[in-house]
Write a structure and sequence with these properties.
By secondary structure, this protein is an alpha/beta fold. Helices cover 23% and strands 28% of the residues. The strands form 6 sheets. Strands 1, 2, 17, 20, 21, 22, 23, 24, 25, 26 and 27 form an 11-stranded mixed β-sheet that branches. The chain has an 8-stranded parallel beta barrel with strand order 3-6-9-10-11-12-13-14, surrounded by 5 helices. It binds alpha-L-arabinofuranose.
Amino acid sequence: MAHIVVNTKKSKGTINKNIYGHFSEHLGRCIYEGLFVKEEDGIPNVNGMRTDVVEALKKIKVPVLRWPGGCFGDTYHWMDGIGPAENRKKIVNTNWGGVTEDNSFGTHEFLELCRQIGCEPYFSGNVGTGSVQELSDWIEYCNMGGISPMADLRRANGQDAPWNVKYWGIGNETWGCGGNMTPEFYSDVCKQYSSFMRNYDSEHPIYKVAVGPNGNDYNWTRVVAEKAGNMVDAFSLHYYTVTGPDWNHKNSATEFSKSDYFETIAKTLYIGELMDVHSSILKQYSKPDHQLKLIVDEWGNWFAVEPGTNPGFLYQQNTVRDAIVAGLNLNMFNDRCDMVVMANIAQMINVLQSVILTEGPRMVLTPTYHVYDMFKGHMDARQVESYAEAEDLKDGDHTIPSLSVSASEKDGKLTITIVNTDPEKSADLDVIIGGCKIAGATAQTLSGALSAHNTFDAADNVCPEDLAVTVAESGDSVKVSVPAASVTLITADEN
Ligand code: AHR
């Protein structure tokens, strides 16, 4: 029997709820159709926001949403997206499919979406093709309460009170689509932008996010942290799980071999090392009163697009394998909560590893959505030490742990989330609890064939189900049998 050990006496701190954040870009059918619809579409909505989608997002308590890109963000001029919709400039989305972007979804619409979902906005500023003035004005437009040119313009456009937007990214992937800069050049640019990103309300200071590394580019982190670290609060990290022979021949989202699966899991787990090394560099360049943090603001599986769909729209199905990848990532983020203060899955809807897919008026919740629902007890909970004692699995060149776990406590409840990566074998687990006694427990699990997924005609094909759990009379362990290829939640009441 494999063991899981949970020790409530040891903790790295609170799991920032923003680890459960999302990312939405003007890309494919994420914003238009997915989140925002027009009256002529005939889809129930409130101020353009799809009611079914908003309700589903409220259920998983989305804490923060990044927008408008991605690569799109560094071509986006926010003033194109304010004022009467019929007067807004129509532009070409040069990054994603060359489609017309009519700017009908802009700053006011995004903040209305956040209001309806109940989440915080996180803006990605345009450094690639924008200007210091433009980003400075955007912050003034959103956050200035008194009289000023931008605050007056906001009021003229119907919004009296400032929105107090806290999170601001200083560009996106400036090492790539955001300008192909060197870390030395970006450091200077970042400092210049940061100098003019003002606080308009001392009770609502803004939080500045520098563009961090591409995967394992440790030199980027070192240089930017050394040169510009004193002028920002956090660094972003982007890391996608990409498998297949090369970038143009990625593996399929739904048809894959056992060896593809092992490659996906091994590459996913690599983010643990990335976070640890980048964190240690950030610690090195931090001051006691200014600790730089890590924000993983793009992560997830990036597979080949669904056959027959626009290649520029990055639409892919979502299977039990995606649920396992989500569970592994979230467990790793939880256990690094002392450094990782936000993470944003790419992307919220209809793009890459989405929690929701739509087709006209129909909506389907993906296996990844259910993982977010199962893990929500971790949000703002106190992380506690946990580890698994189990055998590794081997396939070809890849060795992966068969179990992953994270645990937290809040309001007298323990939340324990377990991923069984073994595609063939269930695992009988003895979960040993130290530091507190357990009075009772419930469990849920999500499992199935690795490629099982939900479709518009079979929307509940992959859903969490109740799982039997036995609590020892002593109150210091629980027994559970987790299925092969599964993500499991145990919720235990502390005595
Ligand atoms: O999420 C899709 C793209 O991936 C984003 O636009 C970009 O930031 C990243 O390369």
